[in-house]
UniProtKB/TrEMBL annotation:
It holds the Pfam family MATH_2. It comes from Arabidopsis suecica (Swedish thale-cress). PROSITE patterns: MATH (PS50144). CDD domains: MATH. Residues 84-218, 238-363 form the MATH domain. This is MATH/TRAF domain. InterPro entries: MATH/TRAF_dom.
Length: 374
């Protein structure tokens, strides 16, 4: 029995030793792989901090936009005179910053759109975002304004780099909004400018020895609270109204109005000045929207119509095209000289027959606008 116990103990001890050796080898390989990876980055992209700092940045401060591929067609770069409106970061010793082996530089928090943000600069590029050799710019929501688990903050971002040669700012932005959340608190551009271009003093981004300036505009893209829907109707059950003016030669008043008629859900009337307005050489004719039509604040009604003076002998009618925006009740639009008084008084012309004049309007299009909330 004692011999069996000793043999069993020996087997257990041997298995334990094999497990320990195997686990240690795996740990050593993992440590060596991490170290070799960092050494490769060091040889390729310049010096980096010690191994412990690199592992900390890689695990806890990894910044990557790889899950959001910015389409080149959505990126807009331009020069502008105006400085950034949200935050500006000026670095007076850029190359000295590089010599300190700083992977990234964060600004203090600044407020924009009800949240606190930080501007993040990678002077030599963000290795974790496959942008080594480029200047990288990001914006992060600061921890002082936490985001709920299912909350999204939609923001428009515009980044700035001052160009001293042009005395203007190079700006870069994506036309799509950036969606910040509890799991994605930082967004930006990993490849803004190559470090060779940026550090070349002839290009103007570094100036006065070793100075540079970055900036950002953060605009919260809130959803609209009010809206409107505009439409135009071009088909009506009965689009024409004809007005017969009797005793035309005996009219003494300056102007006359037809009965009110309804077309396209609106009330209208024709307004005629028999002797014209002003010099009195021609008759004036207008299409007015009726006084009882209710206009919403700032509403305009578009109308397209034809105004006609009918020829009662089947000759050519006088016709004018009307296109106008009606801005309030009683508003009118038309032609101040639609037909000369000489043609009206000449009985051979056929416009006034048996002392009757016929005028007509044909509505071709009327707009309607719905406002939300009403």
């Amino acid at each position: 029995m004692t011999s069996l116990y000793r043999n069993t103990s020996s087997v257990v001890y041997i298995l334990f030793c094999l497990f320990f050796i195997t686990s240690s080898g795996s740990f050593i390989r993992q440590f060596t792989d991490d170290f070799n990876t960092i050494q490769q980055q060091k040889g390729k992209d310049g010096p980096i901090p010690n191994l412990e700092e690199a592992k900390y940045l890689r695990k806890d401060n990894k910044i990557s936009s790889l899950d959001y591929k910015v389409s080149a067609s959505n990126i807009v770069k331009a020069l502008r005179d105006d400085p950034p409106s949200s935050y500006s970061l000026k670095i007076e010793s850029f190359n000295s910053l590089l010599r300190t082996y700083v992977l990234r530089f964060e600004s203090r928090p600044f407020a924009a759109g009800g949240y606190n943000w930080r501007l993040v600069v990678y002077p030599s590029g963000n290795w974790w975002d496959t942008s080594s050799g480029y200047l990288s710019l990001y914006v992060a929501i600061d921890d002082s304004t936490p985001i709920a688990a299912h909350q999204e903050v939609h923001a428009d971002l515009r980044f700035y780099i001052f160009n001293n040669n042009e005395r203007k700012y190079l700006t870069i932005q994506d036309m799509d909004v950036w969606k910040f959340s509890a799991s994605k608190k930082i967004w930006g551009f990993p490849q803004v400018l190559s470090t060779d271009v940026f550090k070349d003093l002839r290009n103007g981004y570094l100036y006065d020895g070793d100075q540079c300036e970055f900036g950002v505009d953060v605009t919260i893209a809130s959803h609209y609270q009010k809206s409107e829907s505009f439409s135009v109707t071009e088909s009506f059950y009965n689009p024409t109204f004809t007005w017969t003016i009797r005793g035309f030669s005996t009219l003494l008043k300056e102007s006359y109005q037809s009965d009110v008629f309804s077309i396209g859900g609106r009330s209208w009337y024709i307004h005629v000045f028999p002797n014209g307005r002003g010099e009195g050489k021609a008759m004036s004719m207008y299409l007015n929207i009726n006084w009882d039509v209710k206009f919403k604040p700032f509403e305009k009604i578009y109308a397209r119509a034809k105004l006609r003076v009918l020829n009662q002998r089947n000759l050519n009618n006088v016709e004018r095209q009307l296109t106008n925006w009606y801005i309030g009740p009683g508003y009118g639009s038309g032609d101040s000289e639609i037909i000369s008084l000489a043609d009206l008084r000449d009985s051979s012309k056929g416009f006034v027959v048996n002392d009757m004049l016929k005028v007509q309007v044909q509505l071709e299009a009327i707009s309607s606008t719905m406002y939300f909330p009403s």
